[in-house]
Amino acid sequence: MDIRRKNTIKIRAFHRKLALRLGILGILAAVLFGVITWFDQSNRIIDKVTNRVLHGTKLFNEQISYLIDIPSWPDKKAIQNELTAFTSRASRNIKEAEGHFVYVGIWDSQFGFLASVIDDDYPLMESLKSHKKQLELELKKAQKSLYKVHRANGIPHILMATPLVDAGGKPVAYVESIFAVSPQAIASARKEIRRTVLGVIGIVLVTTLLLYPTINLLTRQLSSLTINLLDANLETLKVLGSAIAKRDSDTDAHNYRVTIYAVRLAETIGMDPQAIQSLIKGAFLHDVGKIGIRDKILLKPGRLNDKEFEIMKTHVPHGLDIVNRSAWLKDAIDVVGYHHEKVDGSGYCEGLDSQGIPLAARVFAMADVFDALTSLRPYKEPFSFEKTMAILEEGRGKHFDANLLDAFTRIARPLYDEFAGRENDGLKTQLEEIIQRHFSRDAEISLQGPSLQSVV
Ligand SMILES: [Fe+2]
């Protein structure tokens, strides 16, 4: 399966995940906003009903002040009759659906009881008595209009006490009332709350639904850009490797084989995926600095003299100069800069020992020498597998890391049989497979990584 097809499958899986996550988040957001709206509206709407009733009660208290002007004042019987008649009229004036007065009492200026109307059948009357008593005490103290809202069984009750004053503003009597908001008024308020909450939930869900195609489109574009960028980077890698191969040996086969050998060894010793990506880049570009070496030295058929060899060594710093110019190629420096070092410190350019040579360079050095020994050169025939391994063994602890040599020895025979000296399409196929295996993860990360988190 090629990298594009794999990525297409991953993109489909990603869109399914996006839809699922958006759906879950949309439902969670709808529930959250629904709950917040429910509590907010519960308080607001109940307060609205309470305020409406409070206003009606104030009007009631103002209107009842005519009692102090009746000719028989302060005859208790006359006041009782008048109070009963007035309360009955007032209750009709305040919409019955909103509730009714369960108590109205009137006192003279010395707080002597004159008359009252009580709804003895009202089931919550008993629980209101202590609050009524408290309000009377406060009224005696303050001698001005007071009210409080007391909820019993979830039903708001407005308790109000008001002085009735004569023309000179002097208190002549006091009136106290308790109005119970009706269950119908509460039910109607709750119905309004439910309507509002359902509206909010609907808006959140529809918004989430409308967001999906936009996020989907943006993510598709982002995914496509990421995959194109990875393709372009890999192409640059191949082109650069191929450019030096054309100058050096006229084929890409050496680059292909050393990359295959090095990656197989890296996988055998369990190098981490990021390090293997760097190794692949380094293996492809290990001799890219040879672009800066003159043909007279680079293409010389015989052995180089000392001066020529010193010049040849400069392909390492030339290579570092080249890969350092690209952020994506930069991690090839471990191989490009140190592939001629030897673990006994006798290599170049820095003469590092096994502790100082990066692991990728030690892995690559083994692959590079193995390929040189098993390939045809202008000055030699390909060595047999046995002779090659014997020469590598001679380099144990000198040129090569002993542990890496042990690991390579275990996998060398099948590598030799399959790839040594080959220049056919099998190399290219194998290399593409390696690149897909180790770089398709980048496309996967870009699809599953921060971009999705931030969007959602
Ligand atoms: Fe080199």
Spell out which ligands are present: fe (ii) ion
- Counting helices, strands and paired strands, the structural category is alpha+beta
Return the average pLDDT rounded to an integer: 82
Query: Percent helix among the residues?
Result: 55-70%
CATH superfamily of the domain at 252-422: Hypothetical protein af1432
N-to-C series of helices and strands: HHEEHEEEHHHHHHHHHHHH
Give the spatial strand order of the biggest sheet: 2-1-5-4-3
- Proportion in β-strands: 5-15%
| Poorly predicted sequence stretches spanning 5 or more consecutive residues | 444-456
- Could you tell me how far the N terminus lies from the C terminus, measured between alpha carbons in angstroms? 31 Å
Q: Counting H and I runs of at least 4 residues, what is the number of helices?
A: 15
Q: Please write the CATH class name of the domain at 252-422.
A: Mainly Alpha
CATH fold-level assignment of the domain at 252-422 = Hypothetical protein af1432
Strand count: 5
Q: Any idea what the radius of gyration is?
A: 46 Å
At CATH level 2, the architecture of the domain at 252-422 is Orthogonal Bundle
Shape summary: rod-shaped
How are the elements arranged and paired?
Elements: H1 3-63, H2 76-93, E1 99-108, E2 113-118, H3 125-142, E3 146-152, E4 155-165, E5 171-181, H4 183-248, H5 253-269, H6 273-285, H7 295-298, H8 306-313, H9 315-323, H10 333-338, H11 359-374, H12 385-394, H13 402-419, H14 425-448, H15 450-455
Antiparallel strand pairs: 1-2, 1-5, 3-4, 4-5
Helix pairs in contact: 1-4, 1-14, 4-14, 5-6, 5-11, 5-13, 5-14, 11-12, 11-13, 12-13
